[in-house]
Write a structure and sequence with these properties.
This protein is mostly beta strands and 122 residues long. It is built from no helices and eleven strands. The strands form two sheets. Strands 2, 4, 5, 6, 9, 10 and 11 form a seven-stranded mixed beta sheet that branches. Strands 1-3-8-7 form a four-stranded antiparallel beta sheet, with no helix packed on it. It starts with a strand and ends with a strand. 33% of the residues are buried.
């Protein structure tokens, strides 16, 4: 299986930016689609963004125009650039890997990172 490690979270003021990284190791040959999910206290885990092997991207409506997902296949790393951050974006952000299934369904992602905290102050 593939191992995933997120980094880049932190504290930021509303309107600020952060860039999250998801570094993959292990069986990276099978690194097809990587998704980003987030979970805030008292909330369910929700889909944020995803990118497939040929760099097609997917976003949930609440982050469209603000977040950008990209990948560097040579480095086995996926990025989530987050601009114009809002307090509602505060959550633990996870990256996850899948080879098949629905892009927006966490049930179809068998491999997950440990998460990185993003806190946006108002």
């Amino acid at each position: 299986q593939v191992q995933l490690v997120e980094s880049g979270g932190g504290l930021v003021q509303a309107g600020g930016s952060l860039r999250l990284s998801c570094a993959a190791s292990g069986r990276t040959f099978s690194l097809y689609t990587v998704g980003w999910f987030r979970q805030a206290p008292g909330k369910e885990r929700e889909f944020v963004a995803a990118i497939n092997l040929v760099r097609t991207t997917f976003y949930t409506d609440s982050v469209k125009g603000r977040f950008t997902c990209s990948r560097d296949n040579a480095k086995n790393t996926v990025y989530l650039q987050m601009d114009s951050l809002k307090p509602e974006d505060t959550a633990v952000y996870y990256c996850a890997h899948r080879n098949g299934g629905a892009v927006r369904s966490p049930e179809d992602y068998p491999y997950w990172g440990q998460g990185t905290q993003v806190t946006v102050s108002s």
